[in-house]
Automatic annotation (TrEMBL):
Domain of life: Bacteria
Organism (species): Rhizobium glycinendophyticum
InterPro entries in the cross-refs: Cytidylate_Kinase-2, P-loop_NTPase
Family matches, as SUPFAM superfamilies: P-loop containing nucleoside triphosphate hydrolases
Protein name (database record): AAA family ATPase
Length: 189
């Protein structure tokens, strides 16, 4: 995996990238960061939760359909894809110029999920598919966040090395690092 330090080199990659994957654990701020980057760089912003994974009422779209939708999105010359799902890295990474990995501590992700739920509970959240009303986080979802680094980060690293070994990766471990990257790239936040 080709890690870039948060410095001018990473900022230059960000400014010049035409196809960006923003990945990370739920609640870390990847969707907010994705919206900022996409708006600043005038990239079509595709939320995988909204466009790929979910159908109304929290029904998961069949995997074959998910892969077909992703295949169509990545054919374009310019895009930003907000979503992790390493099982689709074989489709996304060969066309990706830059991976931005939001890798905040789990306590921060849990706090982010609770704040998001409080803000949107009982309503549709813009980053979700129509008909997916925000609900209070259940034990399964909280467990996913709590165990993300141990259970899922190794597979993410493995799949990046497998399908995008030469794709630069910028790892952001705090909201301060997110702001620093945007500042260095001269992007608003």
């Amino acid at each position: 995996m080709r890690n870039l330090p948060i410095a001018q080199e990473a900022a230059n990659y960000l400014r010049q990238a035409r196809r960006i994957c923003v990945i990370g654990c739920s609640g870390g701020g990847k969707s907010t960061l994705s919206r900022k980057i996409a708006a600043a760089l005038d990239l079509p912003n595709h939320s995988m939760d909204r466009e790929v994974f979910w159908l109304p009422n929290w029904i998961q779209r069949p995997r074959v359909e998910q892969r077909a939708i992703l295949s169509e999105i990545v054919k374009a010359d310019r895009w930003l894809l907000d979503g992790t799902n390493p099982s689709s890295f074989d489709i996304r990474l060969p066309r990706t110029d830059l991976v931005v990995w939001v890798r905040l501590p789990r306590w921060r992700c849990l706090l982010g999920v609770y704040r998001r739920a409080r803000r949107h509970i009982g309503r549709h959240r813009p980053d979700m598919a129509d008909g997916c009303v925000e609900k209070w986080p259940d034990r399964e979802f909280l467990s996913y966040i709590w165990n993300f680094e141990r259970r899922f980060a190794p597979r993410i690293t493995q799949e990046i090395e497998r399908y995008g070994p030469n794709v630069p990766v910028v790892t952001l471990k705090s909201h301060g690092e997110m702001a620093q990257l945007l500042d260095l790239a001269g992007l608003p936040h």
